[in-house]
Amino acid sequence: MINKENFFIQDIENLNKLEYRKRILNSHFFHSIEWMSLVNETLGVDYKIAILQENNETVASIPFAFYRNFIKGPCAIPLQFSGYYGSIVANSNLYKKKIMNHFFQYCERKKLYTQIPEINSIDGYKSHSGYSIYKIELKNNLPVKEQILSYASKRTRGYIKSAINSNLKSFVGGLELIDEFYFIYLQNMKELGTPPLPESYFKKIIEYLPKVSKVILVKDHKKVCSGMFIMQISEKELFTPIICTPRLYQTGQSSHLIYLKAAEEAQNFGCSIVNFGRSIDGGGPALFKKRYGLKASPLFIYSPNKKWKVTDPNNTNWRYAIEIWKRLPIFLTKLAGKILAKHVI
């Protein structure tokens, strides 16, 4: 029997949603229809799904954001706006390679910019490097503080203990903390020179996932020092897509305390893995995470664009624009972010 392959692009509106939900049941939240709807509602970006069928049975799929980007031009980017990886749901590694090949051919034919982030290498494809993902694994039968202190470097252990014994207080909640979180997030993005996502984006995530998405704040008396947005994206994994400790509001070891609180919340959710997101290799955030005891996994970026490189704000043609952005008042960065944030890759 000759296997008949069929690759095509499917709009969300025409998708067999019941069949799709069954296929992604064991995947992470960023493959879900709910995630794609959320991005469309808050950022005005459409999602499509690349589908590979064999003998009329779906064997692999890739959801991707489909829009015109100010910087890259027309784009087809899997997992855009999530900060996550694992772009492909496939029945086997063979189908994974096949759909990636079809998808790259589609992007080249349509002149679309794309990149696929993975933490597992794919044979036969050259990957680009520059980022790593930082995680920590927790044991459910041991106190989180005990585990964190055992993983951290000697100096960092001292900072964590100092934070625990300080006047800093942590708060965990949902929509009631969004305004305070967004306030510190805006300052953090201003200091980074990056357009902020709209507040509606974070609110929608909590509305879609009220039981498994939270905000963590660390305060010194009434002043917010650090903020973190957390999501349970699979049965075992808690993900922190946003971590904010802007220099303007940082107090003592607030960063050390908020990482600890995120790990404690992960255990409350029943998660054994805390994913603190990606960082540029060799950068300050990466060094902080390593000293905290987090394990680094290289992030492999696959792209037909041979000139692909890490978007490093300190080494880019946009560095002058970034410096100007850092000098803008918050109200302007907030306003402009509604237009520009979706164009940051």
User: In one word, what is the shape?
Assistant: globular
Helix coverage percent: 25-40%
Taking the alpha carbons of the first and last residues, their distance comes to 44 Å
Quaternary form: single chain
The third-level CATH topology of the largest domain is Aminopeptidase
Sheet of most strands: 8 strands, mixed
> Structural class of the helices, strands and pairings?
alpha+beta
> How many helical elements?
11
Question: How much of the residues is beta strand, in percent?
Answer: 25-35%
Strand order of the largest sheet: 6-13-7-12-11-10-9-8
Low-confidence stretches: none
The beta-strand count equals 13
Q: What is the CATH architecture assignment of the largest domain?
A: 3-Layer(aba) Sandwich
CATH superfamily of the largest domain: Gcn5-related N-acetyltransferase (GNAT)
Rg measurement, Å: 21 Å
In CATH, what is the class of the largest domain? Alpha Beta
Give an overview in words.
- This protein is of the alpha+beta class and 345 residues long.
- It has 2 domains: 5-118, Gcn5-related N-acetyltransferase (GNAT) (Aminopeptidase); 133-337, 3-Layer(aba) Sandwich (Aminopeptidase), CATH 3.40.630.
- Helices cover 36% and strands 28% of the residues.
- The chain is built from 11 helices and 13 strands.
- The strands form 2 sheets. The protein has an 8-stranded mixed β-sheet with strand order 6-13-7-12-11-10-9-8, sandwiched between helices. Strands 1, 2, 3, 4 and 5 form a 5-stranded antiparallel β-sheet that branches.
- Helix 8 links the parallel strand 11 (237-244) and strand 12 (273-280).
- Helix 2 packs antiparallel against helix 7.
- The longest helix is centred in the N-terminal third of the chain and has 18 residues, at 93-110.
- It is globular.
